[in-house]
Specification:
about 575 residues, alpha/beta, TIM Barrel, 2 domains, 9 helices, globular, disordered N terminus, glucan endo-1,3-beta-D-glucosidase activity, cell wall, Beta-glucan_modifiers
Length: about 575
């Protein structure tokens, strides 16, 4: 997919430089200064000094000895030295504080670009945040050609309200585009849904736009796990998110703070700003879907939970008879599987496959398939027929999990928004089904923020198709570790349990790097997957399907499980 950056990730402030800092050792050089003044001492001149004289008097006295005092004359000598000192005043140093900017490293999602098709590995990173910080996060969305309004903070008000919220704004200076966070106050004049601080952009072709969104980072330890992405298009863009340890796994987006405004005395409503970009709409009358239970599990009690099955002849693709279906399902049961995944309701699937599974004590993972030529909507004739078929079957107890679409976003049949609406509509129509609901997409699709934001609240478990053979760096013996790693990453996206809805290994074909198809490699791969995550995986598939395009033909597991087909 072609990627156009509408705005870069948040600009990071630079730390203050300490270059050219002098240590002033010259201040301590010996200069011959006076100890107390610090001023230079002038040379001492030599002058004449008057010394006192001394006179000795001898006198003889006869008679009794008597003390005779001698008068001593004291002479004072004074020496005066004169020196001239020139003092050069030193200007008083004025200390100018150096402005510094502290760089706070925060775990904002990292936008990664894959310039050419191939497999890319982005290493794991861990960081600790000590203070709550609001920053610009990176968000991507795929849009068709035309003018689009993206980003901003959405809020719903029921009356005239002043809303204050952080908004990510884009600033371009000297050709460099950066994103900043600013607090914005906006008056919502009437009841409705408002998007504040949105951006408008135009594109000539279908494009992936990257734009900033305000994101609050709370204290905690954040980890971005190693991500392995297989890009099938040029300029593929993916976002590597961080998750927190000991805190909610999803980083909360700042919500708008709404302050109801008293109705003015006059009947004139407060006008919206003339430059207001947000568009308002009346609140939707439909109630939001209830988020799925994060503790919901769809898995088996052994290492062979489920296998995919289609009631089609392996050579012609024609529909199998009821008896043929019964025989196949019996083979699946004999191999030790506990559930069967079906993709749609065509070829009398609900008439033949579901009853055969019930007879064998197998659970059913049912599906609603959206074909490329169909509209991604409950009103599409083919989609509506499948929903009606499920309702008419009236055997919800046989259904363990309902999968709405298979790789429809990957194949560009549905947008995230369209699929979210379809999930809601299917839940409404199939209200008799009280079990878990999910979708089937690949990891790179789930990692797109618009997908996880739209779909995570609507599914009970995270459903994904994971095939290790598509990674050229994984051989058959490493398939299990690869699949388990992908499932661990998926578990962090929605904070819910994961069901691997498709996983297998080809029994024939050309090598993809060190991932080589073949009967023996297929057995190694399936054994490896069974050891690491077989209880939460659906193995692909029951039989080879030569009626399909070449890449999809040789996945049959008959040689692994000795199916009699």
């Amino acid at each position: 997919m072609k990627a156009t950056f509408f705005a870069a990730a948040a600009a990071m402030a630079g730390a203050a430089s300490a270059a050219n800092h002098r240590h002033a050792h010259q201040m301590f050089a010996k200069r011959g200064n006076a100890a107390s003044t610090g001023f230079p001492v002038a040379p001492t001149g030599t002058g004449d000094v008057c010394l006192p004289g001394c006179t000795t008097i001898w006198k003889t006295i006869t008679g009794e000895a008597t003390l005779v005092p001698v008068k001593v004359t004291t002479v004072t000598s004074t020496s005066t030295n004169t020196s001239t000192v020139t003092i050069t005043p030193t200007p008083t140093a004025v200390s100018t504080p150096v402005q510094t900017t502290t760089v706070i490293v925060v775990p904002t999602p990292e936008v990664q670009r894959c310039p050419t098709p191939g497999t890319y590995t982005f290493p794991a990173t861990t960081m600790t945040v000590t203070d709550t910080t609001t920053v610009c996060g990176a968000t991507t969305t795929k849009v068709p050609s035309g003018t689009h309004t993206i980003g901003g903070v959405t809020t719903v008000v029921t009356t005239l309200t002043t809303v204050t919220c952080p908004v990510a704004t884009v600033v371009t200076s000297a050709g460099v585009t950066t994103s900043t966070i600013s607090m914005t106050e906006y008056v919502c004049p009437t009841a409705g849904t408002y998007t504040i601080g949105a951006h408008t952009t135009a594109c000539e072709t279908e494009t992936v736009i990257v734009y900033p969104t305000p994101t609050t980072i709370v204290p905690g330890t954040y980890t971005k796990p190693q991500v392995v992405v297989t890009a099938t298009e040029t300029d593929y863009v993916t976002v590597c998110p961080y998750t927190s340890s000991g805190l909610p796994t999803s980083t909360p987006t700042p919500s708008a703070v709404s302050t109801p405004v008293p109705a003015p005395a006059s009947s004139t409503a407060t006008p919206a700003p003339s430059s207001a970009a947000p568009s308002s709409a009346a609140p939707s009358s439909s109630a939001p879907a209830t988020p799925g239970n994060s503790k919901t599990e769809v898995k088996g009690t052994n290492d062979l939970f489920a296998i995919t099955y289609g009631p089609y002849d392996s050579s012609s693709g024609n529909c199998k008879t009821g008896d043929q279906v019964k025989k196949d399902i019996a083979e699946i049961k004999k191999a030790g599987f506990q559930a069967v995944r079906i993709y749609g309701t065509d070829c009398d699937t609900l008439v033949n496959v579901v009853p055969a599974c019930v007879d064998q004590g197998l659970q059913v993972i049912a599906g609603i398939f959206v074909k490329p030529e169909d509209e991604c909507s409950i009103t599409s004739p083919q989609v509506k027929k499948q929903v009606d078929d499920l309702i008419s079957m009236n055997n919800w107890d046989a259904i363990r999990l309902l999968v709405v679409s298979n790789e429809s976003i990957l194949n560009k049949v549905c947008s995230a928004e369209q699929l979210a609406k379809l999930i809601k509509d299917v839940k409404t129509h199939c209200s008799g089904f009280q079990g878990p609901v999910t979708i089937a997409e690949t990891l790179n699709i789930w990692q797109q923020k618009e997908v996880s934001d739209a779909i995570c609240p609507l599914v009970d478990v995270v459903g994904a198709n994971i095939h290790a053979i598509f990674n050229p760096n994984v051989d058959a013996s490493g398939a299990g570790d690869f699949v388990k790693q992908q499932m661990d990453i998926l578990g962090e996206i929605c904070g819910k349990n994961v069901i691997n809805l498709e996983t297998g290994w080809k029994n024939e074909g050309s090598c993809n790097g060190i991932a080589c198809p073949g009967p023996e490699d297929q057995k190694k791969a399936i054994s490896s997957i069974r050891k690491t995550c077989g209880d939460a995986s659906v193995f692909f598939s029951f039989d080879n399907e030569s009626w399909k395009p070449a890449p999809d033909q040789n996945w049959g597991l008959g040689g692994v499980f000795n199916f009699s087909v």
